[in-house]
Design goal:
This protein is of the alpha/beta class. It folds into two domains: 123 residues, ornithine cyclodeaminase, domain 1, CATH 3.30.1780; 174 residues, NAD(P)-binding Rossmann-like Domain (Rossmann fold), CATH 3.40.50. Helix content is 34%, strand content 24%. β9, α5 and β10 form a beta-alpha-beta unit. α4 runs parallel beside α5. It starts with 6 loop residues before the first strand and ends in a 9-residue tail after the last helix.
């Protein structure tokens, strides 16, 4: 029996992808979220310790929008050994006037990955001290693989280096993404202007003493209280700390660990959307350390679901 609303599969969704269009939608979502124009409760979070997996549920509504979204995203990090992707999920778009479902994106977690890559590109572009930065990527999962192509949308002259726990896999991914593999995290930290951490690690990936002044970080893997990528004491060295959402990052991310350790306070962070809009302005200096912590927002899920719904051909039930 038909559910009465269209279900779009990844085979229908992926051909419509336009990175620049998604980046602009996500940028607007970050700004509107920072301005308080999005109603989005704290995300739901389920852990599956034996399976080394987690499930995130995010939902929200942008003020004045005709629709709202509910997103379920999963990450089961041992799936590769089963021949399965580690990420999965769906996004349901509903009518904000009647509550009726409008469409379901059975996207296999790709829309979450794309909107995260868009936010990463936006953050790295904002941090970049120059037009052709050397960007270091730590990780070998889907997000690490996506990062170079999305960053090149905003930093077309950027260069990339990459490292991970498995050098064979690192070399394979680097070859397909235009990055240069390096042997260790410490070597990457010694070279990179911007470091992007994209792992499901439960412990810090490096020691703070290995970080040189002038390094900027975009940390996106630690999106749950059980995860950690950056050492807590690195936040004490940072001149600027930026969060996609300060309360959410306080609960879920490396930033929250640093707050609970007493290294910093929650008041030390700036919402990313305020910087993107110009509502708050800060200046960079060549020798500072900056950190952007991304945990993913319901506003981004709403934005990407609405963007794709509007791209659907009329015969597939395109929304006006």
């Amino acid at each position: 029996m038909s559910p009465g609303f269209p279900i779009y599969t990844i085979e229908q969704i992926e051909p419509l992808l336009n990175r620049r269009g998604v980046i602009e939608a996500v940028r607007d979502a970050l700004i509107r979220h920072a301005r308080g124009e999005v109603r989005s409760p704290m995300p739901g979070h389920l852990l599956f310790e034996e399976a080394r997996g987690d499930c995130h549920i995010k939902f929200g509504h942008m003020a004045g929008a005709p629709n709202f979204a509910v997103k379920i995203a999963t990450g089961f990090y041992d799936n590769a050994s089963l021949g399965l992707p580690s990420a999965n999920g769906v996004i349901l778009l509903l009518d904000a006037r009647t509550g009726a479902p409008l469409c379901l994106f059975q996207d296999g977690g790709w829309m979450t990955a794309w909107r995260t890559a868009a936010a990463t590109a936006i953050a790295a572009h904002w941090l970049s001290p120059e037009e052709n930065p050397l960007i270091g990527i730590i990780g070998t999962g889907l997000q690490a693989q996506l990062t170079p192509a999305w960053l090149l949308e905003l930093l077309p002259e950027a260069r990339f280096i990459m490292t991970g726990r498995d050098m064979t896999r690192t070399s394979q991914i680097a070859a397909t993404s235009g990055a240069t593999p390096v042997a260790t995290t410490q070597e990457l930290l010694a070279m990179a202007d911007i470091v992007i951490t994209a792992t499901p690690s439960a412990v810090a990936l490096f020691d703070s003493s290995h970080v040189r002044q002038g390094t900027h970080f975009v940390a996106l893997g630690a999106d749950g209280p059980e995860k950690q990528e950056l050492p807590a004491d690195l936040f004490a060295r940072a001149t600027h700390i930026v969060c996609d959402d300060v309360p959410q990052c306080t609960k879920l991310s490396d930033f929250g660990r640093a707050v609970r350790a007493g290294v910093i306070t929650a008041d030390d962070a700036i919402p990313l959307g305020r910087l993107l809009s110009g509502d708050q302005v800060i200046t960079h200096s060549p020798d500072e350390i900056s950190i952007v912590s991304l945990t993913g927002l319901a506003a981004q899920d709403i934005a990407i679901a609405d963007w794709f719904a509007r791209q659907m051909p009329p015969e597939d039930g395109k929304m006006g």
